Amino acid sequence: MRKTIYYFTMSLDGYIADAQGSVDWMTGAPNIDYGFKEFYDQVGTILLGSKTYEHMLKMGDFFPYPDREVIVFSSNDKLRLAGECVQLSQDPATKTLARLQLGSEDDGLIWIGGGGNFAGSLFEAGLIDELRIFIQPIVLGSGTKALISDKNLARTLELILTKEHPAGLVELRYLVPKRWRSDLG
After folding, report:
1. DSSP-derived 3-state class of residue 169
2. In 10 A of CB 54, how many CB atoms?
3. What's the confidence (pLDDT) of residue 57?
4. d(Cα 149, Cα 146) in Å, to the nearest integer?
């Protein structure tokens, strides 16, 4: 069984992009990767929502994940592919992810790479195993929420790591139990 992780950076007030859709506010200490390389080396597949992918395309010719399987969920079948590793899917993301999770651990982690709506739908469906959150020391006030959901979700998460990083970043890791457990208090 493959593990699915929503790995993301957000502001202290829970936004992954500012009101203009920019992520320029994300900063860190120079020459520190905050464990990203170790995480990325374990990733086999990256799932992206269409808005996140389109934002990446606007940033130029550089595509940050040329050596991983990347599946972009979009109804736009004319979307430009950033490389041979990228495939477009019009299938429901929940169906595709459930199928991918049945693969071997040797196939690597499945990284939910972005989109608050996209991640929210997978979270609602109970398909995310772990949240790895990097909190930036900034308050944005508005923008794109990290997990957007139409449903009233009450989920108890299990904290498995807290870590302070240089430049004021804080890392939190939570396991997402498959069933809500009232005994976690």
Report:
1. coil
2. 15
3. 86
4. 10
Which amino acid would we find at residue 47?
Answer: L
Residue 62 has what pLDDT? Answer: 81
| Predicted pLDDT of residue 182 | 46
Q: Report angle CA 68, 86, 32 to the nearest 5 degrees.
A: 45
Residue of higher predicted confidence among 153 and 173: 173
3-state secondary structure at position 185: coil
pLDDT the model gives residue 173: 97
What is the C-alpha separation between 6 and 88, in angstroms, rounded? 20
Sign of the dihedral defined by the CA atoms of residues 63, 65, 69, 71, in that order: negative
Do 122 and 112 form a contact (C-beta atoms < 8 A)?
Answer: yes
- Token match 């940050």: residue? 64
